[in-house]
Amino acid sequence: MEKHRSFGISFIIGCLVLGICLILTVKSLKSYDRVVSVKGLCEKEVMADNVIWPISYKLGGNDLSSLYNEVNAKNDIIIKFLKQAGIDEGEITVKPANITDNRANSYENNARYNYLIVSVVTVCTDKVMKVVELQSSVGSLIEKGIPVGNTESWEYQTVFSFTKLNDIKPEMIEEATINAREAATKFAKDSKSKLGKIKNATQGQFSITDRDSNTPYIKNVRVVTNVVYYVKG
After folding, report:
1. Which one, 134, 145, 185, 192, has least CB within 10 Å?
2. pTM for this structure?
């Protein structure tokens, strides 16, 4: 009988201890059921490190052979202009001439020229500022009889690129995360709470855009991180 009574007391004490532990556990969990979701922004201005510059022009004529020779001569002038400015030969490519036969088009029967040729000399280089400088001096080519820029501008646009994103990614993600924590800390302080651990976090997509339309060689790199923190009241 005494043995059974002792077992019963031990069982009751065990239940009480388990109950207290469960209560404490529930309270502990409840202290972490509040969360705050914040965003951390990081923006950085960088210089483009690569540029593709198509130098295009259009010529018209009635003798195809003479017109083709004229295009070759003008391309040589453009290439010389580029090399003298410090552009390497390997950074210059000449696209095969695009020839339009106006006589083959019934709607061009009254055209001034029988043939139109579009020629494009393209520069692809990491000498970004050198290209920016050269673009402001193409007038010297026009003075030599090369009608640079008289083609469809939308088709032959200069493209400035930033290719070293991986080099700055870790630093920018770190800064964005710090900014997110600062925002979460302020929220916790204003609500008289204590900021806890991170519940989850997601890295936003990086975007690279021109800083403005006048300086497309200066890029704005942007990333937003989303972080959810536990908040203890």
Report:
1. 192
2. 0.78
